[in-house]
Design brief:
There is one protein chain. The chain is mainly beta. The protein has a single domain (about 25-150), classed as Immunoglobulin-like (Sandwich), CATH 2.60.40.770. It is about 10% helix and about 45% strand. The protein has one helix and nine strands; from the N terminus they run H-E-E-E-E-E-E-E-E-E. It has one helix at about 1-20, and strands at about 25, 35-40, 50, 55-65, 70-80, 80-85, 105-115, 125-130, 140-150. The strands form two sheets. Strands 1, 3, 5, 6, 8 and 9 form a six-stranded mixed β-sheet that branches. A three-stranded antiparallel β-sheet has the order 2-4-7, with no helix packed on it. A hairpin with a 5-residue loop joins strand 8 and strand 9 (about 140-150). It is elongated, with a radius of gyration of 17 Å. The N and C termini lie far apart (about 40 Å).
């Protein structure tokens, strides 16, 4: 019985680690910051399967190259190279895990939610997430492929 329990614990540990794996992402123009890691949870494989009626946790670790009093997030669904604005509950970066004012050379963990509404169509697209500083320059910009599903 002990080998089975050990195997089960190892399998559960591997599954939990898979949920927290950093994503492969495309940097789409981070000018005033550099992305260290992007996590979407749960998203164990790519493209991320986003289930309608579910909310996903977003965690971006980045280093700032500038000072800024605040920051604002903008999220888009990119289809056929067209950016369609995607509302998020809290666009203010200072209310999303970032200690403001933002200081040059410091690392930050940006935390937010990505709600997937039931009325969204089932479709493959690219999620594009930007965080801009006071001068509308990008602290970070990343893209990942997703598939919205029922």
């Amino acid at each position: 019985m002990v080998p089975f329990a050990l195997a089960l614990l190892l399998a559960l540990g591997a599954a939990a680690t898979a949920l927290a794996e950093p994503l492969r992402f495309v940097d789409c123009g981070s000018v005033d910051g550099s992305i260290q890691e992007v996590n979407v949870s749960p998203c164990p494989t790519q493209p991320c399967l986003l289930h309608k009626g579910t909310s996903y946790s977003i965690n971006v670790t980045f280093a700032s190259k500038i000072e800024s009093q605040g920051s604002k997030a903008r999220v888009y669904g990119e289809m056929l190279h067209v950016d369609i604005p995607f509302p998020i509950p809290e666009p203010d970066g200072c209310k999303s895990g970032i200690q403001c004012p933002i200081q040059k050379g410091h690392s930050y963990s940006y935390l937010n939610k990505l709600p997937v509404k039931s009325e969204y169509p089932s479709i493959k697209l690219i999620v594009k997430w930007e965080l801009v500083d006071d001068q509308e320059q990008m602290l970070f910009c990343w893209k990942i492929p997703v598939q919205i599903t029922s």
